[in-house]
Amino acid sequence: MDIAVEKFLSFLKIYMEEQVLKKNRAILPIDVNNWYDASKKVNEIYEIKEITPYCRQYNIAHFLEEIFKTSSKDWEESGKVFVDFDLLSDILLKSNLNRKERLEIILNIIIKNRESLENSDAILDYKDVKDLKIEGMTEQEFKDYWKNDFREASKRKEEELTEPEKIFYKKLDEKLVHFTTKNPNIIAQKVVIKHILTKKESFNWTDINITMKAFNILKLDPSLTDELKQVLLKELKKRKTKTINKVSEKKKENVEIPSFSKKEYKLIFREIMEMYDIQDHKIIRALTKDEIIYLVSLMLKINIPEIEIRKSIQNINWHGIEAYNNPVTEFNYNYEKIERNSAIVEVEIAIRNIKEYIQAMIMPEDDTEYSFWKNQIEEELKKIRNILNQDDTYELEEGRKLNRMRAEK
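RE: above sequence
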């Protein structure tokens, strides 16, 4: 058991004791010798929900304790899924764990949930399926079936099932498709798995940004989300520094000498400075996608360090919009870069919407309708510019490709 989990379990023990004390304090003013007044007071307490918060917080803390005390194999077989990240968030902020340890706890819970998220039937509760009651069963019989016999029955071959069971499983499959594609909590956890847990040491800034959106969907407290972002950014920066140091050492061992004269070098450098001030990292003028790629190819040609080129690309990209007359032109010019990021949900949705809007613009009834669709495209691009601007690898790859093409001529 790692240190973060040990600290968290110790805190949970104290936290649960506190919730019991708070619940007891809410009931203490009752005169137990007067049964009528006592029962009336208890009803009042529950009606105004004075006790409910403490009970729920205690139950969540107890559930969290169960998660970390249960082996991964046993947890997987239990089919349970933790979804109350808003309450977990509150507990973590009250804990004595540091930022990194808080992130570890959240990721550990999502790891424990992973198998159940893949086996989608595990994420459904009785309340989600009670409308699918098997014909011939009473409500209680169906509830018992779901609780005790469902998992065993779901492993049987189709021919071994009764006709009512076959109908039930068909309806269940349909519900699962809807549930797993529409339930934000489940989607958000899968996003964290995809962009952080599976990538481990290879996640980038875009992955972090997407993960923060997933944490927002999970209803983590904004202050906690910001803490977690700082932890991931620190890890990313640490990894990049290691990579840069390795590259620098390699370059020292094998310095690449440019195959052109000082005069040619000065001409290339002057051409770069006419588009972008590489020394002060200032924008000289807004550049289109093709101009950015050409600029990057020149920077690569005179061996400007990659970290400086990446910084330049991101700087230029933030002002890229100014290089285009309208959003349709911007979309068409940058389609290749947009398409390569289509695995990101926001980008995929934007591509689909923009294509529909462009289609609607072909035969507009009047200028007002044309302007409307144009503005819609602009809004879609705004939603994804932040993601696209962080993808500096695209311009680097295209810049290298352009230099190879020149060398082959």
